[in-house]
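Quick check before the chapter quiz. The format below is the same one you will see on the exam, so make sure you can read both the input and the output lines.
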Amino acid sequence: MTLDVTKSIDIIETMENYIAKVRPAPEIRSKLDLSYEVKDQSVILNEIRPAWDNPKEILTNGYAKATFAINKNIWKIYWIRADNKWHIYKPKPAVKELKDFLKIVDQDEFGCFKG
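Here is the expected output.
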């Protein structure tokens, strides 16, 4: 099930404001940039950079994900491990607001999201 229109608008506004705040300076965005995508009930934060062995190939890799659990009205937080699979973020598995997810990612207390 996808999110309703009102929730989607709130998500887009929150994420656009966040990305505008955290994106690297324009002069280095060809080497490193950040974006997000909304996929079904999830918001995924992505890192965009050229492949190390082929700079013409641009890679987009997710590093943090929040999935909205409609029945509980919470956002579940995930991080991607070395096995390239999403795992629940055990220090704080869920939050009420998307903004709280973004704060946790920014703090990255355990080095899970940004290394």
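If your answer matched, good. Helices lie at 5-22, 98-107.
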